[in-house]
């Protein structure tokens, strides 16, 4: 049996943060400037009492409500998050219970960010094709806005909260999840991290992440991102990743209907698209109303593309994730 994506859905919190809201806080950044640099006009923000498990449950319940599958049929839950409710227990255990999954269904967290969805697809494929499971629920859920220092406009303009739910099932037809390629560079881990809230001070890994070095009064977590280094890493790594996936899949640009990249920010995505020679009509940028939702950007973009009619059955896709870790992954998909 091969693995295939059989259903997808997503959930965005009700609270929003618009460019006008941000411009009111930071008058030196106009609404137009924020939109031009990021490609984002609105971000959804989890409420104070709303956490990753809550978003995950809402996304999965939306998928179940569409009649895609009964929760009792799920053999394994893969929960991708880097903003867990607790150090322990796993967020997957909390979601497993709230969704009413079987007690003999596996559930585990996958601690990856921007590349996490593709890693989880690879894990789901392995579970199914090794006959450990026939139905895997892949859920992404991140509430990065809880990590942000309210004074740090550089990251507050980018990140939003959200969750997705993707059903991976066994299928007897041709392989539709294939040509996976992965990579990791831990030497760049200090370029994107949450320095506070864990067991080891972040300044050990990245001295420049200290809030006083950034002119900030510390809050609980103080997420730090070295935007220039993340951009350089992306430009250095992603073209080779795309080449690797396409070579494994035996595809050329003309063979791919849609290239769905991690929705980091519009400036970075347009730079990559131009460098790779991908036509604009094959390169959806679908983050204007959601922002960078980290592990959820690719599946949320896929679900939005289905809603808008951009993505249709039978299309060939190239999925590309890259970011925190540093980590990257890509795969080909027949939809």
Biggest β-sheet: count, sense, barrel?
Answer: 5 strands, mixed
Secondary structure tally: strands: 13
Beta-strand content: 15-25%
Oligomer: single chain
- Note the total helix count: 10
Order of strands in the sheet with the most strands? 1-7-6-4-5
**Helix-strand topology string:** EEHHEHEHEHEHEEEHEHEHHEE
**Overall average residue pLDDT:** 96
**Percent helix among the residues?**
25-40%
Shape: globular
Structure class = alpha/beta
Cα-atom Rg, whole angstroms? 19 Å
- Note the gap between the termini: 17 Å
Low confidence ranges: none
Fold and architecture overview:
This protein is an alpha/beta fold and 335 residues long. 32% of the residues lie in helices and 23% in strands. It has helices spanning 19-25, 31-38, 52-65, 91-99, 116-129, 153-156, 202-205, 227-249, 266-276, 297-308, and strands spanning 2-11, 16-18, 42-44, 76-80, 106-110, 135-142, 162-171, 177-184, 192-193, 224-225, 258-261, 316-323, 327-334. Strands 1-7-6-4-5 form a 5-stranded mixed β-sheet, with helices on both faces. It has a 4-stranded mixed β-sheet with strand order 8-13-12-11, sandwiched between helices. It has a two-stranded antiparallel ribbon with strand order 2-3. Helix 1 crosses helix 2 (31-38).
Summarize it:
The chain is an alpha/beta fold. 32% of the residues lie in helices and 23% in strands.
